[in-house]
Amino acid sequence: MTVANRISAWIAEQVLIAGAKGGVLGLSGGIDSSLTAVLAKRALDDGLLGLLMPCRSNPQDLAHGQLLAQKFHIRTELVDLTPVCDAFLAVLPEGTRLSQGNLKARLRMAALYYHANLYNYLVIGSSNRSELAVGYFTKFGDGAADILPLGGLLKRQVRELARELGVPQTIIEKPPSGGLWPGQTDEAELGISYNDANAILRGLEAGRSRKELAEKLGPDKVSLVLGRIEASRHKRQLAPTPDV
């Protein structure tokens, strides 16, 4: 069984185990959400709903989400969150670029879970293994999901599988971005390329020492990745509670 078939079968199994009728995901126009949508479509067919959720967004993101949906015949709904975001920002203190970007991610999460409750669907997230390892996701935003089909794939593997399954090349080739603010890209915000981050993550999983990795990839890059792993540990765990 191919990787694609295994993941699609797993999606179908998770929905069945949960007693749900299907799944809902956000179609951001990026490679991760696009690949997740293709795999989920294979698993759920008409039981998949893709939400197009522009929120002070680049119009290209919406266009790419629609392109993917049209090619793979994915049922969609358009939920324009821009007025909701504007209303929030009007009553909140002036924020930073990051706080406003995370607000957008959490508004999208709320819309996804609203539809999940409405249709008895699971929320299907699109975070990959590279992002999860270094905490590159918004806590209770795009990190909030019932299942994460790409959670075992590094970014390189996501690209390879997207090509294999026919995700449009224009989506595969554009710089990965969460679309949290104009011009934002994953790699610029991370401070390291996905290729280097993946090499370090693979090295750590293979049991290579910090010294070995530093000699090969540079001490600053290794320190950055290890620092992000440690600093984002809280994102991958339930909230701590005291012993009383």
Structure description:
The protein has 244 residues and is α/β, with parallel strands linked by helices. It has 2 domains: 3-174, HUPs (Rossmann fold, 3-Layer(aba) Sandwich); 191-236. It is 56% helix and 7% strand. It is built from 12 helices and 4 strands; from the N terminus they run αβαβαβααβααααααα. Strands 3-2-1-4 form a 4-stranded parallel beta sheet, sandwiched between helices. Helix 2 (31-44) packs parallel to helix 3 (59-72). The chain is globular, with a radius of gyration of 18 Å. The N and C termini lie far apart (49 Å). The mean pLDDT is 93.
Fold blueprint:
Elements: H1 3-18, E1 22-26, H2 31-44, E2 48-52, H3 59-72, E3 75-78, H4 82-91, H5 97-119, E4 121-123, H6 129-134, H7 155-165, H8 169-173, H9 186-190, H10 194-205, H11 210-217, H12 219-231
Parallel strand pairs: 1-2, 1-4, 2-3
Give a quick precis of the structure.
This protein is of the alpha/beta class and 244 residues long.
Query: Tell me about the biggest sheet?
Result: 4 strands, parallel
Shape: globular
Total of helices: 12
Taken together, the total number of domains comes to 2
Q: What gyration radius follows from the Cα positions, in whole Å?
A: 18 Å
Give the neighbour order of strands across the main sheet: 3-2-1-4
Given this structure, which CATH class of the largest domain is correct?
Answer: Alpha Beta
Average pLDDT, all residues: 93
CATH-defined fold name of the largest domain:
Rossmann fold
What is the assigned CATH homologous superfamily of the largest domain?
HUPs
Strands, total number: 4
Q: Tell me the helix content.
A: 55-70%
Low-confidence segments, given as residue ranges, are none
Query: What structural class do helix, strand and pairing data support?
Result: alpha/beta
Please provide the ordered H/E string of secondary-structure elements: HEHEHEHHEHHHHHHH
